[in-house]
User: Fold this.
Amino acid sequence: MPLKDYCFDGTRKLELRDMPTGAGEYRVRKGEYVDATNANMQRAAGLQEKLYASGEEGLIFALQARDAAGKDSLIKKVFGRLNPAGLKITGFETPGETDLAHDYLWRIMQAMPERGTIGVFNRSHYEDVLVVRVHQLQKQYRLAKRCLTDDFFERRYVQLNNWESYLWENGYRMVKIFLHVSREEQKQRFMDRMELKEKHWKLSVADMKERALWEAYDEAFETCINATATKVAPWYVLPADNKWYTRYLMSEILVKTLEEMHPQFPPLDPEEAAKIPAAMQELEREA
Ligand code: AMP
Ligand code: MG
Assistant:
């Protein structure tokens, strides 16, 4: 399936049940995809260096998914192959007192990467229209009554679209990734977490309870993606059951997005350039 078929930019509607969760027929070509991922990451690293050198645009990947869909390992295995100096990884957990004392974008704004840097959000502002919607948490968040309208989440989608347009107009790109894992694969990964000692730290009984809300989450993801898929801040719905395939697609998105940004090394200031011959002579004299 070409990359564009995983992309939602507002020009077509997402039906989550039509989207694959695994590599399907590509499974037999795993080796080729792993090689292609390696080549993509080399290319991405070269483009990242130019992005960093030019410092003109910032790029943010917002990763959203169910538990055990592979966000952490995607960060480690794909983004971990870029230059860490030009990366800013931020995880968003349950908001604390200070977070809740502010508007929901407050903590996100503090995590924004500088221009020239690639930001990776492990969960993001989208939690505020996903987990919050499924559990109706806004009702516990001490919000003024006038804010708790019937169209609370529709308004939030508009706010998110407005905010992402604002970022676009201020030199940032936001790309949103949904890791689409199947119910069976999630079960298997939870089982592994229970069986393997080195995975115990990832275990959370609360995560397992969320499985009972599978359909509610499907609905929340689908509605959210359809409402917030735009040209300036597209969503990608990536199959997550085969990690090597997810990594390949993520590497493709990385290269495609960086190529669209077309970063260039900045030209040397002519005044500095004029000083080069004398500086070279000086260094040569040292020897
Ligand atoms: P983990 O990604 O495993 O570290 O878990 C983080 C937890 O924080 C998940 O259960 C998220 O649903 C939760 N979380 C993140 N952001 C929010 C938010 N804005 N409101 C409520 N829960 C959140
Ligand atoms: Mg978790």
Summary: Residues 8 and 105 are 23 Å apart (CA to CA). The pocket of adenosine monophosphate (ligand 1) is lined by residues 92-95, 123, 127-128, 131-132, 137 (CB under 6 Å). The first strand starts at residue 7 and ends at 8.
